[in-house]
Write a structure and sequence with these properties.
The protein is an all-alpha fold. 75% of the residues lie in helices and 2% in strands. Helix 1 runs parallel beside helix 3 and helix 3 runs antiparallel to helix 7.
Length: 294
């Protein structure tokens, strides 16, 4: 079928999402190139890369909302959105962690191989997650995601990078060096890079898992909400402007943690409701099949 017309505004918002992801990758390249000459400039470029990913999330949220509000949803828009998300939430976070990793020990071939492995696995999981979503759309509960959504995974990884750049993990490494034998043999920067690489791998695996995660955008933005929601939103925005790295870290990683705990609760502590067959009752007709047999 030949494509003749497209939805202009939603497509432009999706392309803005892609531009932000591409810009984040360019910032990462600049970070690697300038780190040896100007570490402060390299850190600033890495911060810009993280900011570009979070800006892309706004465009990613808006394009779908605008398409639904204007009745302009289409298969073209869905495919374009997935391709943009592949770049922004798959490749860009892997590039950010890789740039931070290569700053620590850029001359080591083994170190380079490790960061390549972590980045490739994460990006591949993001692509697989988005491809599976396109195939299963319309067949799963729209109030939940199957597997960690790629924007949430990217937010968790990138916010952890920002959090580490603020020096919050340094205190933990200092404590480990004093209390854990042999931990002082690994430099704090190398330890942070390795932990972030492993964390990125964990987020990648969670994307392709069958864990259920709430559709927060639909639950928080859809329908009417109490007045206290508005007050809470203003409070969070004020905190975000005051401490962006800290607020983003706890928001995204808190979402992941709550989702994991919810899956554990459903798996081990909540009994499944009995089926109609087990009850011997048809809810649609209100009849008991066993009575008919008699």
């Amino acid at each position: 079928m030949r494509l003749r017309h497209i939805s202009f505004l939603p497509s432009m918002l999706t392309l803005c999402n892609f531009v932000c992801g591409f810009a984040a990758i360019l910032f990462c390249m600049h970070t690697i190139r300038t780190y040896s000459q100007d570490p402060e400039q390299a850190q600033l470029m890495l911060t810009y890369a993280c900011a570009a990913v979070f800006l892309a999330m706004i465009f990613d949220m808006l394009d779908g909302q605008v398409a639904r509000m204007t009745g302009a949803e289409s298969q073209f828009g869905a495919e374009l959105d997935s391709l943009a998300d592949d770049c922004t939430f798959g490749v860009a976070p892997a590039a950010i962690v890789s740039a931070l990793w290569l700053q620590v020990q850029p001359e080591s071939a083994q170190w380079y191989g490790q960061v390549m492995l972590c980045g490739v696995v994460y990006a591949a999981c993001a692509i697989l997650r988005l491809a599976r979503y396109n195939v299963e759309v319309g067949t799963v509960d729209r109030n939940y995601f199957t597997g960690l959504p790629s924007p949430a995974a990217a937010g968790a990884v990138v916010s952890a990078v920002l959090f580490s750049m603020q020096g919050y993990f340094d205190r933990m490494w200092d404590w480990l060096a004093e209390n854990v034998p042999h931990s002082h043999q690994v430099e704090a920067e190398q330890m942070e890079a390795r932990v972030l690489g492993l964390y990125m791998l964990v987020m990648g695996v969670m994307m392709v898992s069958r864990l259920r995660f709430s559709h927060l955008a639909k639950q928080l933005l859809g329908g009417r909400k109490p007045f206290t929601y508005l007050v809470l939103a203003i409070f969070v925005l004020l905190l975000l402007f005051h401490k962006p790295a800290e607020v983003l870290f706890f928001l995204f990683n808190g979402y992941v943690l709550i989702g994991v705990l919810g899956n554990v609760r459903r798996r081990f502590f909540v009994r499944a409701l009995p089926t109609e067959k087990q009850l011997g009752f048809d809810f649609e007709t209100g009849e008991n099949p066993d009575d008919e047999e008699e």
